Amino acid sequence: MRPGSLVSEPFFEGAEPTGRLVVWGGTVALQLTMEPEDKEEARFIARLASRDERAFNELVVLYQERVFRILLRMLGRRDEAEDMAQEVFVQVFKAVGTFRGDSKLSTWIYRIAVNLCKNRVKYLKRRRTEAQDEYEALAERSPMTSGSGVTSGDIHRPDQMVEGMQLERVVQLCIVELEPDFREVLILRDVEDLSYEELCEVTGLPDGTVKSRLHRARAMLKQAVARKMGEKAK
């Protein structure tokens, strides 16, 4: 091989990571091959970083509904969630230039949303804000039927005790009464259906802590629902 020559050979074909072994001037490097969706996201992030207004509008359209839903379930009040959603996207727009691509763009956005939300929850808790009325309305407007975790059929089939929206309202109310750290993992995993990997990235917690906290959150929710249903039955 001549010094300074460029040689590019397939490398790790059929396995992760996929790329090519590149030799240039005696230096060997692995040049990774990006998947099409990764390339598309990278281009989108570059547009955001260049302060492309159209890209930012596309970002809001793509993520506003899910971000708002997370905030509403965490905060329990529509007016608070609406204000916080605007703040989330302002922060995203300001900080997108620092996004290193260590996680998916969506995961990074959810992390910003959750961190801002947790700070707001602490503030609202100090003010003793009551969220139950808003959660009753939320249960009627947005039943938790899309998530893979805590739904009507997951708490030892409580649908055998009550039907439909009554149970949904009880579950919603019990979620908002959980401590924020437990509420966070429960909503992200069981309602929003994030993977454990995404949960770790959003919360900054190790896998074992996430799973332990989620297990405790589910147990606490189960007990709270059973207690409230018992009270309703009296």
Task: Offer a concise description of the structure.
With 234 residues, the chain is mainly α.
List keywords for this structure.
234 residues; mainly alpha; three-stranded antiparallel beta sheet; 3 strands; globular; disordered N terminus
Radius of gyration, rounded? 22 Å
Which geometry do the CA atoms define? globular
Span from first to last CA?
85 Å
Element order: H for helix, E for strand = EEEHHHHHHHHH
Tally of contiguous helical segments? 9
Strand order of the largest sheet: 1-2-3
* Helix amount: 55-70%
> What are the low-pLDDT stretches, counting only 5+ consecutive residues below 50?
1-18, 28-34
Please report the total strand number as a whole number.
3
Percent of residues in beta strands: 5-15%
How would you classify the helix and strand content by structural class? mainly alpha
What characterizes the major β-sheet? 3 strands, antiparallel
Estimate the mean pLDDT confidence: 76
